[in-house]
UniProtKB/TrEMBL annotation:
Protein's organism: Methanotorris formicicus Mc-S-70
UniProt keywords, alphabetically: ATP-binding, Cell membrane, Ion transport, Iron, Iron transport, Membrane, Molybdenum, Nucleotide-binding, Transport
GO molecular function, one term: ABC-type ferric iron transporter activity
Name listed for the protein in its UniProt record: Molybdate/tungstate import ATP-binding protein WtpC
Subunit relationships: The complex is composed of two ATP-binding proteins (WtpC), two transmembrane proteins (WtpB) and a solute-binding protein (WtpA).
GO cellular component, one term: ATP-binding cassette (ABC) transporter complex
Length: 382
């Protein structure tokens, strides 16, 4: 297990990390998700001992390792550019960390061949790095990091240099390898798909701070704030004032800054509505339907201003009185074109307060922490 406790770091007077804390259990992968410059790689370097933090502790298996040099931390590191030795062959590259640790030659040979077999690169053992493809280099870098049997494996965007088809293939393989070996790891990426696939937990970072930590579904379906929502692609954010509360429904006046005039919607009642009169709601684009006529109670008239191909689906952008909302559909189902007038509709259950709680992911209603209770004392707030 690894614990990151209140880590802070400034470089040239600029705050890079601010009071970062989280833990990773044995055999689990924590993904640090964020854009370039948010402090992800700096944190990995601190854990590996390549940088010294200004404050806080790195704890591995109950031991504070702040003062240990990199070679004594038993941390594996897969760098973004792989950092392989071009003058050495594959076997020598993989064996490098074991030789630094002064492991006996017979044990080195045994462990190198074992990891090469697992990663299916034994046939490459005599080749030099320039002779390898991108995917092969990635496997060699991973083998070199794993062969030392690290307490923690650090991976800094290891797939980012690969082409999209190879990246998709290797991320599936990487997940299988890490799980089969029971690796405890911290994986850095700016790619949402990688984070959702590889992470047991995901920490979304921005400007040196963690915005939200949770299971992949929690991050995607229940963003805690507007930054997280935008980062995971939930662009439909309605800001409103609570006008009326009934037993299981709330009436909310939507007053986003871009709106020419407010409109009201009815949504499922959540405990947070009892305590907070101004709320932000997010709606996933797949929960929005488009119709020619007004069919639902939550229906707002708008005009289609763009249709964006996005893989197997289409992203439809609709202007509703100055506010842009996004819906997803398929080519087969889309019956409208740009400049067509449509009604944007959604159910009462579609909007969810940005509270970071598990209330809306598929098949998780029984675990809802925002469930409505007739006794306010029993309600567990968002």
């Amino acid at each position: 297990m690894i614990e990151i406790n209140n880590i802070s770091k400034r470089i040239d007077g600029q705050e890079i990390l601010n009071d970062i804390s989280f833990g990773v259990n044995d055999s689990e992968i924590m993904v640090l998700l964020g854009s370039s410059g948010c402090g992800k790689t700096t944190l990995l370097k601190i854990i590996a001992g390549l940088l010294k933090q200004d404050a806080g502790d790195v704890v591995i298996n109950g031991k504070v390792i702040n003062d240990l040099p990199p070679q004594k931390r038993n941390v594996g590191f897969v760098f973004q550019d792989y950092a392989l030795f071009p003058h050495k062959n594959i076997f020598e590259n993989i064996a490098f960390g074991l030789k630094i640790k002064k492991i006996h030659e017979n044990e080195i040979k045994k462990r190198v061949y074992e990891i090469m077999e697992i990663l299916e690169i034994t046939h490459l053992k005599d080749k030099k790095i320039p002779q390898l493809s991108g995917g092969q280099k990635q496997r060699v870098a991973l083998a070199r990091a794993l062969v030392i049997n690290p307490d923690v494996l650090l991976l800094d965007e290891p797939l980012s240099a690969l082409d999209p088809i190879l990246r998709e293939k290797l991320r599936e393989e990487l997940k299988t390898i890490l799980k089969n070996l029971g690796v405890t790891g911290i994986y850095v990426t700016h790619d949402l798909t990688e984070a959702m696939l590889l992470g047991d937990n995901v920490a979304v970072m921005n400007k040196g701070e963690i915005q939200q930590i949770g299971k992949p579904d929690e991050i995607f379906y229940h963003p805690k704030n507007e930054f997280v929502a935008n980062f995971v692609g939930v662009k439909n954010i309605l800001k409103g004032n609570i006008k009326e509360l009934k037993e299981d429904v709330a009436t909310i006046e939507v007053v986003n800054e871009d709106l020419k005039s407010p409109f009201t919607i009815k949504v499922k009642k959540y405990p947070i509505f009892e305590r907070k009169r101004n709320v932000s709601l997010c709606i996933h684009p797949e929960d929005i339907t488009l119709n020619r006529t007004k069919k639902d109670e939550n229906a707002i008239k708008g005009k289609i201003i763009n249709i964006i191909p996005n893989g197997s689906v289409l992203k439809v952008v609709v202007d509703i009185g100055g506010l842009e909302v996004y819906a997803t559909t398929t080519r087969h189902l889309l019956k409208y074109g740009i400049n067509d007038d449509v009604w944007v509709s959604f159910s009462r259950d579609a909007p969810h307060p940005m509270c970071g709680k598990k209330c809306r992911s598929p098949d998780q209603e029984a675990l809802c922490k925002c469930k409505v209770s007739k006794n306010p004392i029993e309600e567990i707030g968002c």
